[in-house]
Design a protein that fits this description.
The structure holds two protein chains of two kinds. Chain A has helices spanning about 5-20, 30-50, 55-80, 85-90, 95-125, 130-160, 165-180, 195, 200-215, 220-245. Chain A is mostly helical. Chain B is globular. Classes of the chains: A mainly alpha, B alpha/beta. The interface between A and B is medium-sized, with 30 and 30 residues.
Chain lengths: ~250, ~240
């Protein structure tokens, strides 16, 4: 296949056009959805956590953007093969492209959301350190590896077990509550922190806040561990995917 | 050139398809009862460069499975396939067409999925549009096209795809008389250009007119193989 790149581009462009077809606000929803969720959570929880954390607003917004990327990314990834049954059953293009096209879709949302965040961020008196942006980029990379690693499994398994979609939805809300997104880490007793940070999402969100909002260097051992975990998941996922995808058309 | 050696394909069809986790859990200790269905048994044949091979057989005889294996969508259980040259499968016209997109978008989508690059599509865009006679409806959504127009568009894209080997599944089964005529003209052109073609059809006239040799498939086996007239007579006489 010499036109891999063109296939990728056309799948991304098509998904993007179709995503908000027939909706009045169209692409604005990409930003509006997490922002509205932010408003709701802010109104509900700022009374509770606002005093403890002077940066509660920014912390909440950044956390929501990152967890939204995770949830959307894995959900799109889950459907990425089955939703393209019409072409997968007729043409033999490299199937990984379908997964990367779905990932690109959530990266587009992430980008727009980060632009909105950047405006809030510039307006607030947050210290910008030289290491802030490179580290933040690293956390986005770790998160992306994690999402794609999961998607290699989810996309294949969903073809075989159709109720994985519902299970994953529930798991996603569990992950949302198990990760310090709308509550600060300080509400969890100190001795449980190491447990919380076994969750790579907690490491990514917490340290992104440290470098971007607090202006403090991140916890490197935890970052390393999260990176390693994401990388291992990605490699295992890729191997699993390449092994299983050859026969997946028969299960459609 | 296509060389197929001893291809076999078996599908396992579970009696009750377990798709949900509940079904998997509750019947965990009950082994899945499979019915094995052998779709293809030891199929071997060869198509030389520039040759047209017709494939006929009743429904369920394994024609589509064979084409899907040749197209690389299914893996055969055993056997070997050798292909020299670029192959494009047309298992269906208009693969990937989306009713919510404009004709323009669909042209790019379909052509790229079938293996063209974006710049190739751009170059052939006017040809496609003229051949399909849809100049005025380029920015109309495909869902507002009549089914005949959709087929015409799909066919116009298909014929622009350069390839050495074409794998065609029942492409003539759709469309009105005018479309059939266009198809015939296109086939004649392809034959003159010396393309290698694998053609599945229920229409004996088409096979007679274009194919050099033919295969009769029945229940996954090659019943007759060779000269077109001989195979057609055997098939129709069965």
């Amino acid at each position: 296949m010499r036109n891999k790149k063109d296939i990728f581009n056309i799948l991304v462009a098509t998904d993007f056009k179709l995503r908000y077809q027939n909706s009045v606000l169209g692409v604005i929803w990409v930003v509006l959805k997490p922002f509205l969720l932010f408003l709701i959570l802010y109104l509900v929880f700022s009374f509770l956590f606002g005093q403890k954390d002077p940066n509660y607003k920014l912390n909440l917004f950044l956390g929501l953007i990152l967890i939204n990327y995770f949830q959307e990314g894995t959900t799109f990834g889950l459907y990425s093969l089955l939703s393209r049954a019409n072409i997968i059953l007729k043409v033999n293009f490299p199937r990984e492209i379908a997964l990367y096209a779905s990932l690109a879709q959530s990266l587009i949302s992430l980008f727009f959301n980060l632009v909105v965040f950047a405006i809030f961020w510039c307006l607030s008196p947050t210290p910008l350190k030289f290491f802030s942006l490179p580290y933040f980029l690293l956390y986005i990379i770790i998160l992306t590896l994690l999402i794609q690693g999961l998607n290699f499994f989810l996309s294949i398994l969903y073809v075989k077990f159709r109720d994985l979609a519902s299970i994953w939805e529930v798991l996603n809300s569990l992950i949302f509550f198990a990760t310090p997104v709308f509550y600060p880490l300080s509400v969890i007793p100190e001795e449980y922190h190491s447990l919380v940070f076994l969750n790579p999402l907690a490491v990514i969100i917490h340290n992104s806040r440290e470098v971007l909002i607090k202006g403090e260097p991140p916890n490197l051992p935890r970052t390393g561990l999260a990176f390693l975990l994401a990388l291992v998941l990605f490699i295992l996922g890729l191997l699993f995917f390449r092994k299983k995808v050859k026969k997946i058309a028969e299960d459609f | 050139m296509i060389k197929v050696e001893n291809i076999s394909k078996t599908f396992r069809i579970p009696h009750e398809k377990r798709e949900t986790v509940r079904e998997h859990l509750f019947s965990f200790f009950k082994p899945l009862e499979y019915e094995t269905f052998q779709a293809l048994k030891n199929i071997s044949f060869e198509v030389k460069s520039g040759e047209w091979l017709g494939i006929m057989g009743p429904n369920g005889s394994g024609k589509s499975t064979l084409l899907k294996i040749l197209a690389g969508i299914y893996l055969p259980d055993s056997g070997k396939i050798e292909m020299k040259g670029k192959a494009v499968p047309f298992l269906e016209l208009g693969v990937g067409f989306n009713p919510e997109l404009s004709a323009r978008d669909n042209i790019f989508l379909n052509a790229i999925i079938l293996g063209m690059t974006k710049s190739e599509v751009a170059k052939k865009f006017t040809n496609i549009v003229q051949f399909a006679e849809i100049e005025r409806f380029l920015d109309t959504k495909l869902k507002n096209f009549s089914s005949g127009m959709q087929v015409r568009l799909a066919f116009s894209i298909a014929i622009q795809i350069e390839s050495d080997i074409y794998i065609l599944d029942e492409v003539l089964a759709v469309g009105d008389a005018a479309f059939q005529k266009k198809c015939q003209e296109e086939f004649t052109r392809m034959k003159k250009l010396g393309k290698t073609v694998l053609l599945v059809s229920h229409d004996m006239e088409t096979i007679r007119r274009y194919c050099h040799r033919a295969i009769w498939l029945d229940k996954g086996e090659i019943k007759e193989h060779g000269e077109v007239e001989k195979v057609i007579n055997a098939y129709l006489g069965s």
